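Wed. Picked up where I left off yesterday with Amino acid ABC transporter ATP-binding protein. The coffee machine is broken again, so keeping this brief.
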Amino acid sequence: MNAATDTPGLLRLRGIRRSFGEKLVLDGVDLDVDAHQVVALVGASGSGKSTLLRTVNLLETIDDGEILLAGEDVSDPRVDADAVRARIGVVFQHYNLFPHLSVLDNVTLAARLVHRMPRADAERRGLELLDSVGLAGFAAAFPDRLSGGQQQRVAIVRAIATGPELLLLDEVTSALDPELVGEVLALVRSLAEGGTTILMATHEMAFAREVADRVVFLDAGRIIEDAPAHEFFTAPREARTREFLTRFLRE
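Structure written out below (tokens, as returned):
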């Protein structure tokens, strides 16, 4: 588990509200993520976890509130959203690799096109990262030649290849067969131990307990509890949290 640093609030969310038609999905969310911290979002399906991550990456426009990234108000409509997204790595449930590009081209695309890194430098960095996760031998392969777990590891490598300030992980194991989950979680654990700042939505409770600095429980678009991981699982303060954990662990 990472220790929080003295640098507060790499990401700060204040009063975030988001509705889809008549349905209120995020209801006044306040959340801080410090540099080098790992924060896990947990909650039932439909609780707002994925929508919250999408608002951080400006894929969803908030109705009210403020999103600060390293002190900058990135929720200001005048902000260049693409420039903000270039500072954030995102990995979704489904790998979203480009099927017509090789693994190495998938990994280096953003570095070359968005960050204008020379191809040779981008490929050197990409190969180093692929080697670090045991996938250098697949650099020239196309995604359909890889297992689901391998594809998700490539997606994570792609997300970190540009050195993002913040990594968002949205249920990155939910689309995987059970036997493939472990290899993806091992990579996330390694990133966490290396100091990557991570905000992740997950249903892997044991993993959240082991890796996260803090666990945040969302219910109906509101944060019900936000506590250090050990405290969250051993002595939750809120009755709703205890009910969720009891039901989840019983399933």
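Quick read: Confidence is low (pLDDT under 50) at residues 1-7.
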